[in-house]
Design brief:
Distance between the termini: 29 Å
Number of helices: 2
CATH architecture: 3-Layer(aba) Sandwich
Number of strands: 6
CATH class: Alpha Beta
CATH superfamily: Alpha/Beta hydrolase fold, catalytic domain
Shape: globular
Order of helices and strands: EEEEHEEH
Strand order of the largest sheet: 2-3-5-4
Length: about 120
């Protein structure tokens, strides 16, 4: 079994403009997806997906305005981190690869749906 690497939550304390509590969903064998979930549970989800080499911090100035959008339909920002980025766990090895792509995309679907 490969070792799983995980950045401690304390490493992200004190980041400028970052006030979001970490949330996680486990996908397989100790691997987990970190995500931000802001807004009402019954609100229309707004998934925010980053590329590499960034993480959910990229959207720190968009999360608040998205959840405060005016109109009849409230919005909820759902922002997962990709494999090996920021809070997201990573298996040991020399390369970042998606160890469980089906689990990752199922987690993204569930996060986006507010499950």
């Amino acid at each position: 079994m490969m070792r799983v690497y995980r950045a401690p939550d304390e490493r992200f304390a004190g980041l400028a403009d970052w006030r979001y509590a970490p949330k996680y969903v486990e996908i397989a064998d100790g691997l987990r997806v970190h995500y931000i979930d802001e807004g009402a549970k019954d609100a229309q989800p707004v998934p925010m997906l980053h590329g590499e080499p960034t993480w959910s911090y990229l959207y720190r100035h968009m999360i608040g305005p998205a959840t405060r959008a005016r109109g009849d339909m409230p919005f909820a920002a759902r922002v997962p981190d990709a494999q090996g980025m920021a809070h997201r766990t990573l298996r040991g090895g020399h390369f970042i690869q998606e160890d469980d792509p089906a689990g990752f995309f199922a987690a993204i679907r569930d996060v986006a749906a507010g499950k």
